[in-house]
Design goal:
The complex is a heterodimer.
Chain A lengths: L9 H12 L2 E5 L24 E9 L2 E10 L7 E3 L24 E8 L1 H6 L4 E2 L1 H11 L7 E5 L8 H4 L1 E2 L2 E2 L3 E2 L1 H10 L4 E4 L17 H8 L3 E4 L12 E5 L9 E3 L2 E6 H4 L1
Parallel strand pairs in A: 5-7, 6-10, 7-11, 11-12
Antiparallel strand pairs in A: 1-15, 2-3, 4-12, 4-14, 5-13, 8-9, 13-15
Helix pairs in contact in A: 3-5, 5-6
Chain B lengths: L31 H8 L4 E5 L5 E2 L14 E5 L3 E10 L5 H6 L2 E8 L4 E6 L8 E8 L5 E7 L10 H4 L9 E4 L7 H9 L5 E6 L9 H5 L4 E5 L5 H11 L5 E4 L16 H26 L11 E7 L10 H22 L4 E7 L17 H14 L3 E4 L1 H12 L1 H10 L4
Parallel strand pairs in B: 6-8, 9-10, 9-12, 10-11, 12-13, 13-14, 14-15
Antiparallel strand pairs in B: 1-2, 1-3, 4-5, 4-7, 5-6, 7-8
Helix pairs in contact in B: 4-9, 6-7, 7-8, 10-11
The chains are: A alpha/beta, B alpha/beta.
């Protein structure tokens, strides 16, 4: 008897077989949890996002002769991470708004990737506007309800100080305009919104009305955020499936996670 | 005339690094009074409360009237070198390795005569000053120096055993980004340090003084975050064998007390950086520095902790920060004991409120980064173990010495001072 009965579970069996024969490939959209990976910086009088840290408990030595293991610590919003609605004040009273309560089927869904890399290369403060979304839809069709929308900027290829791109007036990095994120949430009813930058909002997002429109609009409407994504350039505009399952932290506002994309071979060459 | 030391040549890789040995350690409890005074570079002797006789060597009862009321007091250090000789061999390995060694007898103006170590520039029958300094065992020893300043006097080999001069030595400043980072780098660069490594945490986050620091001669930025064990271990792997003086100026400070702090986020970071950061550095750099305590002209010589004087007594406005400083102060005592076997000194530099954004609403006087940095250099040159920078810190330690409970009452009832 095989592990999966092909007659009874056709869809799953064909997925497994497509993954086995390479028709469907798996792309890792995650950055390595690294102590030196940038996190969001707030004014220093506020509490800060804890950096990822690791302490060795033993390494096959007198502290534990046959095993190696570490304690690690970080913030819910360190590294590639998931934002739950409870993260933002606009989503604090919604039902199922924390990572432990979100129905698990909400974590897996189709993805639309809007390529803003050219614009972001020319303008650090590039905005994802309704016009940009409209142009994408003209090429790839209307964004279907309940899908992940990922904004590709190639920001994940930046490193060091260029990633946060902090200046005297704060960070400069691309993100959605208030109208852009409202269109995605209110008119397209997306599942969630993902970015390569440190936050779903633009670096200068606090100067919009409302401030931090992506956080405000997404979480106020029970939608999710994905941040610090990697490898978005390996995904096709449509056709991939994103699996983003945060840790089940009681009343957690977010979580570092491994984000995977299942991609049909025709799109990855 | 002292022959000035030269920059040491590169080490012969075929030669074993000399294992540090330290001078004799045994002292009576009374004699430890000299070490206590030497920690702050003071020449103190016991003075009888009954008959005012000045005592030497230290003892439990007055040599004139047998009173047990003997107080340690700062006394005149002037005297005359009445006899001198050179020891050319010794049964003790420390002195045997360092022979010839000049010793003599000094007749102090204030009464006692004493056998002491003698600087090469002291003239027989000439006037001298006695200084009381810590030796490699961490004990106060008496050393005769010429009455007047002489050229390159600090390079006398016997005196160098008692001091931690940065000259031609390699320095690691653990936090270039902190308020004192640039000033310390400048001060060491100007004090003939061979190279100053300046630890930079989170290079992905810009900081204003970076360019100014990079412009300094002999200063090199290296990646280091004392809150990250891996980062500390990696840097030690790279440069651990050439850090002669480590200056731990990494600091996390936020206002807030126990109840009024509201949460543990800042307190955890204070413990993480100020206390556990010290431990991470010690676990990485400590063993290799301890092994290089007798490694020639640029031997490992000192570990410097920049601490808050509120380690001694809590300042409620900075309650959790004071607690983290107290923890670091306690760890430094342990570290002192562990580094002493290698002849490496732990110098603690205690400051009160510093000139920075976190102490901005506090009234002056506050300690500037420049003042802190010059105190560090001076302390190393003098070979001190405990330094209190600024009038507030000096006043606080005097009050603490007079009565810790009294100080606590003053600090906690009047909103601190």
């Amino acid at each position: 008897m095989t592990a999966i009965n092909c007659q009874d579970q056709t869809a799953l069996a064909s997925l497994v077989s497509a993954m086995a024969n390479g028709e469907v490939t798996t792309v890792d959209l995650t950055h390595t949890l690294d102590p030196d990976f940038p996190v969001i910086i707030l004014p220093p009088e506020f509490g800060q996002c804890a950096r990822f840290r690791m302490e060795e408990i033993s390494a096959y030595d007198h502290r534990g002769p046959a095993w190696k293991w570490h304690n690690f610590s970080c913030c819910e919003h360190t590294g590639t991470h998931f934002d739950a609605p409870i993260h933002w004040i606009s989503g604090r009273d919604l039902s199922n708004n924390s990572v432990d309560e979100i129905p698990v089927e909400r974590f897996i869904g189709p993805a639309c990737i809007i390529d803003c890399s050219e614009g972001a290369a020319q303008d650090d403060d590039f905005e994802l506007t309704p016009e940009v979304i409209g142009a994408w839809e003209a090429d790839h069709g209307r964004i279907p309800p309940n899908c992940w929308v990922l904004m590709r900027t190639d920001w994940s290829k930046r490193s060091g100080a260029a990633y946060l791109n902090m200046r005297d007036d704060g960070p400069h990095s691309p993100g959605p305009s208030p109208a852009g994120i409202r269109l995605l949430v209110e008119q397209r009813d997306i599942r969630g919104f993902g970015v390569e930058t440190v936050g779903t909002d633009a670096g200068q997002g606090q100067h919009y009305t409302p401030p931090f429109p992506a956080h405000y609009t997404l979480h106020g409407n029970n939608k999710y955020g994905l941040q610090c994504l990697n490898n978005l350039d390996l995904l096709p505009p449509v056709g991939s499936v994103v699996i983003a399952t945060p840790l089940k932290i009681k009343k957690g506002t977010g979580s570092p996670l491994r984000v995977l994309a299942l991609v049909p071979r025709t799109h990855t060459g | 005339m002292t022959t000035p030391i030269s920059p040491p040549p590169r080490k012969d890789p075929q030669k074993r690094t000399r294992v540090p040995v330290v001078p004799p350690d045994a002292r009576s409890r009374a004699a430890l009074g000299l070490s206590v005074a030497a920690a702050r570079g003071r020449f103190m002797l016991q003075v009888c409360k009954e008959c005012s006789a000045i005592q030497y060597p230290p003892r439990d009862a007055c040599s004139s009237c047998l009173s047990v009321g003997l107080d340690w007091q700062v006394v005149s250090s002037r005297g005359r070198l009445v006899a001198e000789t050179v020891v050319r061999t010794s049964t003790h390995v420390y002195f045997r390795e360092r022979a010839p060694w000049r010793v003599g007898t000094v007749q102090l103006d204030c009464g006692p005569s004493m056998i002491c170590h003698v600087h090469g520039d002291c003239v027989p029958q000439g006037n001298v000053h006695i200084i009381n300094r810590l030796d490699k065992s961490g004990h106060g020893v008496l050393f005769a120096v010429p009455e007047k300043e002489m050229p390159a006097m600090e390079d006398d080999p016997q005196l160098r055993e008692l001091t931690c001069s940065p000259k031609f030595r390699r320095i690691l400043i653990t936090d270039a980004r902190s308020e004192s980072g640039l000033a310390l780098a400048k001060a060491f660069s100007g004090a003939d340090a061979a190279i100053v490594f300046a630890g930079e945490a989170e290079s992905w986050r810009h900081w204003p003084e970076r360019e100014n620091l990079q412009r300094l001669d002999n200063v090199e930025l290296v990646p280091l975050d004392v809150s990250d064990t891996q980062s500390v271990e990696e840097l030690c792997g790279e440069i651990g064998g050439k850090v002669d003086i480590l200056v731990n100026n990494a600091r996390f400070v936020r206002p807030g007390g126990v109840i009024d702090g509201g949460d543990l986020i800042f307190a955890q970071q204070e413990i993480e950086v100020n206390c556990l950061g010290l431990m991470r550095l010690a676990q990485a750099f400590g063993p290799v520095m301890r092994g290089r305590g007798a490694d020639g002209v640029n031997s490992a010589t000192a570990w410097v902790n920049i601490l808050s004087v509120y380690a001694y007594c809590n300042l409620p406005q900075f309650g959790a920060y004071s607690a983290s400083s107290a923890a670091a102060h306690s760890l430094s005592q342990c570290l002192r004991s562990e580094l002493r076997v290698g002849g490496v000194r732990v110098m603690n530099v205690y400051a009160s409120a510093t000139e920075d954004e976190w102490h901005q609403p506090l009234p002056p006087p506050k300690v500037s980064a420049t003042k802190l940095a010059s105190a560090v250099i001076e302390g190393l040159r003098e070979g001190l173990e405990d330094i209190y920078v600024g009038d507030v810190a000096k006043d606080l330690i005097d009050r603490w010495t007079a009565g810790p409970k009294l100080l606590e009452l003053e600090m906690t009832r009047q909103g601190g001072s």
